[in-house]
Amino acid sequence: MKNTTILQTANEFVAKGDYESFLAYCTAETKWVFVGDRVLHGIEEVRAYMKEFYHEPPVFKLEKFIEEGDFVMVTGEIKLKNKAGRYENFDYCDIWRFEDGKMAELKAFVIEKH
């Protein structure tokens, strides 16, 4: 299976709010770097992040996928519902590194729209 297909399949679980099925596509040592914000080390920190920030499943609008070797770059828009129940809108560029068919590392550039 191509890494782009793996990522799209995993993200379908996020869109349904099935975060545990999404996490099954990540390595146990997965590392997520949100540039200028935070770094998550390991699946437990990612799980805690999703619990804190995904009050409802995020809404994605994907623009481009570019795959080369063990890397997939994705650009698009994401809407997240905040604690007050209002959506916040962001543009993003994610660069994923895959290892043996699993998501091993994310470098995410996320910019809030105003």
From TrEMBL:
Pfam families noted in UniProt: SnoaL_2
Transmembrane residue ranges: none
Ranges of residues in domain SnoaL-like: 12-105
PANTHER family: BLR2505 PROTEIN
Protein name per UniProt: Nuclear transport factor 2 family protein
Species of origin: Sphingobacterium puteale
